[in-house]
Amino acid sequence: MIKARGLARRFTTKLGPVDAVRGVDIDVAEGELVGFLGPNGAGKSTTLRMLTTLLQPTAGEAIIAGHDLLADPAGVRRQIGYVGQKNGAGADQRAGDELEFQARFYGLSKHDARKKVADLLERFELQGMEKRAVITLSGGQQRRLDIAMGMLHDPRLLFLDEPSTALDPQSRRNLWDHIKQLRTDGTTVFLTTHYLDEADFLSDRLLVIDHGSIVGEGSPDELKNRVSGDLVVLGTPQASIVASKFENAVVDGDKVSFRIPNGDRALPGLLRDLGNIGVELHSVQVHRPTLDDVFLTMTGRSLREDANAA
Ligand SMILES: Nc1ncnc2c1ncn2[C@@H]1O[C@H](COP(=O)(O)OP(=O)(O)OP(=O)(O)O)[C@@H](O)[C@H]1O
């Protein structure tokens, strides 16, 4: 559904050129839900804008939903939906009018447009909201309306840019269910996010981007399995003695952390060995790798810190 090769975008600024995207290859199969994960400024939006014909690449090529991105952008646009970070619906307009107007814009007859709108209102739990001004809808309802607008022409491929930004936890979860349902109903979904939990929950497969280049690819589980081992954190007054026993151990006050494969199974023997040399322990924790660990392993920095810093 997406096959991009060497897609790149350089911006020329007063301070010199900025290589926002440095020649990425992207493959997305029909029916997949692919997450495009990276910290702020990694190049997600720029890539998305190129894939959706909104921005001309400076190098590379792509076939999107069977159409050549450079030679037939109109063909691409007919096949895709795009839901950007800013609301697409006019704030003062009534939700139903916005949907119907857009449906007519796509060439549907009045009758078909009404039918389509009713269907989408139901599908995205917006029944009864059609007469309300967009601005009076909750954040979650507005996001669902945005997605409904993106689905008016039954696109085979839907692009979502940071879908759950600024939503409360309950609305996010509800939105996620709707996004998963899109995939279940047969739409291929490509979404950007800098939230690890969102990427983990939604994606069949993840592409991780940093500084304009893809640094990792795989299912959330595959990526987690690539991180070498579980993180063990031991609390002990003899932290430096414990640290000397493990490669790459990090001491932080009275805590020692290190990674070992199959931490939960290895731990009993390890604790016995430490007991045998007289080490006293007052706490033991084993953490399975998270996507943040994956990101840290790949890039040397924490995605969470980056996201929080934004
Ligand atoms: N129009 C532009 N002119 C100059 N530089 C730009 C332009 N658009 C983006 N950039 C730069 O390109 C890089 C990638 O930006 P991009 O918006 O694609 O990142 P992102 O991963 O989507 O981040 P965010 O999560 O903040 O949207 C950043 O360094 C950004 O400052």
| Global geometry | elongated
Intertermini distance:
32 Å
Radius of gyration, taken over Cα atoms and rounded to an integer in Å: 24 Å
Please count the beta strands (DSSP E, at least 2 residues each). Answer: 14
The name of the CATH architecture of the largest domain is 3-Layer(aba) Sandwich
CATH class of the largest domain: Alpha Beta
CATH topology of the largest domain: Rossmann fold
Mean pLDDT, to the nearest integer, reads 90
Proportion of beta-strand residues: 25-35%
Total count of helical runs of at least 4 residues: 12
Largest sheet strand order: 6-7-8-3-9-10
CATH-assigned homologous superfamily of the largest domain: P-loop containing nucleotide triphosphate hydrolases
Regions with little confidence, pLDDT below 50 for 5+ residues? none
Question: Which cofactors or ions or other ligands sit in this model?
Answer: adenosine-5'-triphosphate
